[in-house]
Write a structure and sequence with these properties.
This protein has 13 helices and 19 strands. The strands form four sheets. A six-stranded antiparallel barrel has the order 11-12-17-16-15-18. A five-stranded parallel sheet has the order 2-1-3-4-5, sandwiched between helices. Strands 7-6-9-10 form a four-stranded parallel sheet, with helices on both faces. The chain starts with 7 loop residues before the first strand and ends with a strand. The protein has 439 residues and is α/β, with parallel strands linked by helices. It folds into two domains: 147 residues, Rossmann fold, CATH 3.40.50.10940; 282 residues, L-fucose Isomerase, Chain A, domain 3, CATH 3.20.14.
Length: 439
């Protein structure tokens, strides 16, 4: 099952009992909770905060609920230290939504609060308008999803088996900085043990049964059943490690020795919400998981190929994509992998739709996430893999100049849906060690 963001947020009002509008607090919290719940969030009321003691107690309660973000609605002017005391108990990102009112001072209260939080470097966002204002709601939704993304990435575990490909230095991972800037921790998976477990599974009926089921999902197969069973045995070995360590993503150093053995496992795991990036690229695995959370669907692991005559560009890898990424299931061909002409991979043209492209790589003092948005259009099998053909609003030549100039790596992960807003906000919330770079 594909994992998706399900933000859990708290809601509370802020007020000083002396001020005009303080009596609006209970109704404001109730209304805002309803608005946020209708937007798909798990929103819980924490009532009204009118004193420092209430702020501390509310912070403790919110911390016990493990919320992703706290939404405060100032209903009148209030003392700014309420939020500071709350923050010491529950230091999550804050969204401020002051309720309009000419005599209340709610807007002033929010302004003095954001002044203080900016100085402290604490992540926050603020909107001003009625709760039914679509612009405010959209801005708030982006912030809340980004806050939830930050939490999910910090709890992620990425399995790494083998090594990065010799000669692909741009895929090198800084394990400590990845944890600091992006969130996931790396779980080493001993490749010889993984391959030994694959051989053990070949003595069981399981790989044969899985292979027969996989054949039914594809339009055509031109591989030997023996290769299909071996691919399924490797999938079973990796799946066992995923369950043992609670992994959220995986990467295996496949090129060139394991080409055709790993590919189908990547396709199958992606369908189950566990992306597997090619060529031992830990950064790529993190980027695929990132996109999966934002788009609620699998992502492509790709290289950037030559631009087409119409200024579109094709991105692809050898055939490790989720079957759900195919435009038509009957177009899926189980075939030996290119270059090595062995094993099994899944060949198909990718489906059309809006897409976000992400390239994640370490930088001095942190990580950089390069982001592009475009539109995937129908394509032929111009490359033996999973070609996805993308049209950008900008000229491809200008984008290539940007990639060369900024020194962005060659692996681009492609997810369906436009998510640049959430990614930019995620960068703001994550802190200075993570840079979001868009063209």
């Amino acid at each position: 099952m594909i994992d998706v963001l399900k933000p859990c947020i708290g809601v509370a009002s802020l007020s000083s009992p002396l001020e005009v509008g303080a009596d609006r607090a209970p109704g404001a919290v109730k209304s805002l909770v309803q608005v946020l719940q209708r937007s798909g969030f798990q929103a819980e009321s924490f009532g009204s905060i009118e004193t420092a003691d209430q702020a501390r107690d509310t912070g403790k309660q919110a911390a016990e609920k493990h919320i992703d973000a706290m939404v405060f609605t100032p209903v009148c002017w209030y003392e700014d230290y309420y939020v500071l005391d709350f923050m010491e108990e529950c230091p999550v990102p804050f969204l401020f939504w002051p309720l309009p009112g000419m005599e209340t001072g709610a807007l002033c209260g929010a302004q003095q609060q954001t002044f203080f939080l900016k100085k402290l470097g604490h992540p926050y966002e603020a909107v001003f308008g009625e709760f039914n204002d679509p612009v405010c709601l959209e801005k708030g939704k982006v912030f809340i999803r980004a806050a939830s993304l930050r939490n999910r990435m910090r709890r992620a575990r990425i399995g790494f088996s083998g090594q990065r490909v010799l000669g692909m230095t741009d895929t090198a991972c800084d394990e400590h900085m990845l944890k600091k800037a992006v969130g996931p921790r790396i779980v080493p998976l001993y490749l010889p043990a993984l391959l030994s477990r694959t051989e053990e599974f070949l003595d069981d009926p399981g790989p044969g049964i899985l292979w027969e089921e996989t054949l039914k999902q594809a339009g055509k197969s031109v591989v030997q059943d023996e290769d299909g069973r071996r691919a399924m045995a490797f999938y079973m070995a990796v799946k066992e490690k995923v369950e043992e360590h609670g992994l959220h993503a995986v990467t295996v150093g496949c090129y060139p020795d394991l080409m055709g053995i790993v590919c189908l496992a990547a396709s199958m795991l992606a369908d189950q919400g566990v992306p597997l990036s090619c060529e031992g690229d830990v950064n790529g695995a993190a980027a695929m998981f990132l996109l999966m959370l934002l788009t609620a669907g699998p992502a492509h692991s790709t290289d950037w190929l030559d631009p087409m005559g119409d200024d579109s560009v094709v991105l692809t890898h050898c055939g490790s994509g989720s079957f759900d990424l195919a435009e038509r299931k009957e177009d899926i061909v189980l075939s030996p992998v290119r270059l090595m002409e062995r094993g099994v991979c899944a060949l198909f043209p990718a489906k059309p739709g809006p897409v976000t492209l992400v390239s994640l790589d370490p930088q001095p003092g942190g990580y950089r996430c390069a982001v592009l948005e475009g539109e995937a259009v129908r394509t032929d099998m111009v490359f033996p893999g999973n070609p996805v053909r993308v049209v950008f609003e900008q000229h491809t030549r200008d984008i290539l100049d940007w990639i060369f100039r900024e020194g962005i790596g060659h692996h681009w992960m492609v997810g369906y849906g436009h998510t640049a807003q959430e990614l930019r906000m995620w960068g703001r919330i994550a802190g200075e060690s993570l840079t979001i770079q868009t063209f």
